Amino acid sequence: xxxxxxxxxxxxxxxxxxxxxxxxxxxxxxxxxxxxxxxxxxxxxxxxxxxxxxxxxxxxxxxxxxxxxxxxxxxxxxxxxxxxxxxxxxxxxxxxxxxxxxxxxxxxxxxxxxxxxxxxxxxxxxxxxxxxxxxxxxxxxxxxxxxxxxxxxxxxxxxxxxxxxxxxxxxxxxxxxxxxxxxxxxxxxxxxxxxxxxxxxxxxxxxxxxx
Length: 211
Prior knowledge:
Helix content is 32%, strand content 24%. By secondary structure, it is of the alpha+beta class. The longest helix is centred in the first third of the chain and has 14 residues.
């Protein structure tokens, strides 16, 4: 099962890659703010994953959160689908929340920068989940550079846009964006052994970790 929040995000990202999406946006936000009489303290981890895949209609969205429904394709033989249902359960138990939208159901493009003329897709799905990092039931955050590396290497995705922000006076602030196409221009084939090493070092350096 999942042990970290980045494991949850990786699972949803894989779903997008397997949905026929060609482009994907993965955004990670962390916010730590001291409380005040007007506003309570906030210690939140949030991820947003949007793709330009085939999307889901209203009925499909309802089935997606049902743990007793699975298409039997991604995991043949499995009778229970735990991806999105487990995400929903974890988010709620940790004092957070979730939201899933699809242009196919909502009648609008959820991630405008993914609706480009190249792919011709104006559908797609967006999954958003947030967690209270102060809650004892919240899993550890996990390896964010590792998550980003995994997302960049999923087959079929022509463009992956990684967005990262952190507002934390103790750990320091972060704000950066990485694109798969730009990395390929700089490193070549990302699955090449030498490129993988450089990619890992680069992603960790963005987090302030040069080890």
